[in-house]
Amino acid sequence: MNLLLRIWRSSLGKKYVMALTGAALFVFLIGHLVGNLQVFGKPELINRYAALLKSQPGLLWGARIGLLACVGMHIAAAVTLLQANRAARPVGYAGGDAYGSTLASRVMPMSGLVILAFIIYHLLHFTAMQPGINGVGDFSKLRGELDGKPVTDVYAMMILGFQVWWVVLAYLVAQTLLFLHLGHGLASMFQSLGLRNHVWWPRIQVFARVASLALFIGYGSIPVAIFAGGLGKDYAAKSKIQLETGSIQKEVVR
Amino acid sequence: MKVKIKVWRQKNRNSNGSFVTYDSPDLNPNMSFLEMLDVVNEGLAVKGDEPIAFDHDCREGICGTCSLVIDGKPHGPHKGVATCQTYMRSFKEGDLITVEPFRATPFPLVKDLVVDRKSFDRIQQAGGFISVRTGSAPDANAVPVPKENADLAMDAAQCIGCGACVAACKNASAMLFVSAKVSHLGLLPQGQPERHRRVKAMVDQMDAEGFGGCTVTGSCEAVCPKEISLDFIARMNRDYAMSLLKGDPKGIAGGGA
Q1: B245: burial class by Cβ within 10 Å (0-12, 13-18, 19+)?
Q2: Cβ B219–A90 below 8 Å, yes or no?
Q3: Least C-beta-crowded within 10 Å: which of A3, A21, A220, B214?
Q4: Do B4-110 and B117-246 fold alike per CATH?
Q5: Which CATH number applies to B117-246: 3.30.1250.10, 3.30.70.2860, 3.90.226.10, 1.10.1060.10?
C-alpha cells in the first residue's frame, strides 16, 4: 500500500500509471480489432466469436472491469497531471508556444476526451444496444441462429449499424483522433517507463507510427467497407425486415 | 542594421506588466543579442527612462545566467547556443523581435526579463551531490570509469542550469534539467552509493517546487543550449522506478557495527 501511495503521489509515478494502463488498452485494441475484422468473413464467423465471448461471463466481465479500471486510472492520472501542468505554466508566450513540439503531443488531452466520449457512445451503441442512438432501430431484436441455438446477430448489428452516415462519420472521427493519440502515446509510453536510449528511440517512433496507422486502417476499414463498399448488403436487407417485423424471415446461411 | 524589439516590461512581481516596443539604434550585425540590449538600454538611460532588466554574466555560453524567450524560443533562433551567443546577424533589417521572460510558476518574475531560478538550486541541494571526504586529490585512474559512461556523464554534465527546458515546455517541466543532474552523477562510480536516494530526493523536490510533468513533446531538447538528450529523462525514469520500489532505506539494528 505504501508503494502504491508513493507511486500515486509523485509526478513520475503517475506517468508510470499512464504508460502501463495505456499499454494494457493498446493490447486490448489489437485483440478487439482482430475480433471485429471477422465481419469480413461469413456472418457465422463473427457471431460464433461473439457467442464464444458471451459463453464465458466470468472472463468477459473480468476483462470488462479490468479495462474500465485501466480507462479510469488513465483518466485520473491524466487529469491530475494536467492540473499540475496548467498550474506550472499559467502564462503563455506572445511569440508562440511549445517550440519544437508535434501537434499530436499538444492535443493529447483533447484527443483523449474525444476518445472517451466515443467509448461511451460505442458501449451504448453495440454493447448496451440503446435503440435511440443508432439511427436504425432496436438491435436487441436481431436474433440469429448458430448450431440450432439462438444467438445475438452481431453481424447484422454491425452491417445495419454502419448504414447510417453520421454513425460512420462519428466512428471515423474518433478513429482519427485515436490514431493521433496513439502516434504520440505509444512512443511516450516507452519514454515514461525509461525503456529507451538513442539507438531504440527511432525504432520506437517507427513502431508507434506503424502500429497507430495499422489500427487506424484496420478499424476504419470496417465502417467504410460496410457503408461505401456494400459489405453484407443482402444480409442487411433481410435483417432490416427482421428489425421492423421482429420475426426471423431470413434463412440461416451455413 | 536596425530592428524593433517588443519587450516585456514589469516593474516588480506585484505589478502588472505589458509589452513595450523600442526602435534600436544603428547596430553592428556582429553584436550579440545581449549587446544589442545594452545599446538599447544606453539610449533609455540617456532619455532618463528605466533600462530593461535582464540576466547575464559570462556571455560565453557556459554560466547559464542569460535567459530570454526570443520570438517564442528560449535562447533565440539557433540550435545549441545560449542568448549570449546569439548574434544580430541572425535577424533581418527591420525585424520585430518579441522578447519575453521565462514563464513558469516555479520561476517567479523579479523584474522585466529577470526571473528567480532558485528552485533549480533547491533541487540541486536536495541530492545533486556526492558525499565524500575531502582531502588530497585521488590518483588519476584510481577509479576506473568505462569510456561510454564517461562520455554520457560528460554530456549530462554540460547542463548549465539555465532553465530554457522549463521555459520551452508547455507544462513548465524541469525533467530535462533534473535528469541531466541525476544522470551526470548516476553514471559515475562516485555517484553510485547515493544513486537511488539522489533521484528520489531530486524528483520529489522538483514536484514540490511546482514544475509540471513530462509529456514527451521534445520542446526542451529542441531549445537546450547544450543539446541535452531526452535519453537522460528515460534514464531518470528508470532510476526513479527503482528508488520507488526500494523505498526509504531503514537503519539496521547495531548500525553496521
Answers
A1: exposed
A2: no
A3: A3
A4: no
A5: 1.10.1060.10
Chain A residue with CA closest to B240: the answer is: A12
Given A6, A11, A188, which is nearest B216 (Cβ)? A188
B81/B224 Cα distance (integer angstroms):
8
B114 contacts B7 by C-beta, under 8 angstroms: no
Overall domain count for chain A: 1
pLDDT of chain A, 254 residues: tens digit per residue: 588 988 999 999 999 999 999 999 999 999 999 999 999 999 999 999 999 999 999 999 999 999 999 999 999 999 999 999 999 999 999 988 889 899 999 999 999 999 999 999 999 999 999 988 988 888 888 888 888 888 889 999 999 999 999 999 999 999 999 999 999 999 999 999 999 999 999 999 999 999 999 999 999 999 999 999 989 888 888 888 888 776 554 444 44
Q: Is B114 strand, coil or helix?
A: strand
Contact call for A100 and B103, based on CB within 8 A:
no
Kindly report the CATH class assigned to B4-110.
alpha beta
Residue extents of the structural domains in chain B: 4-110, 117-246
Contacts (Cβ under 8 Å, ≥6 apart) of A64 = none
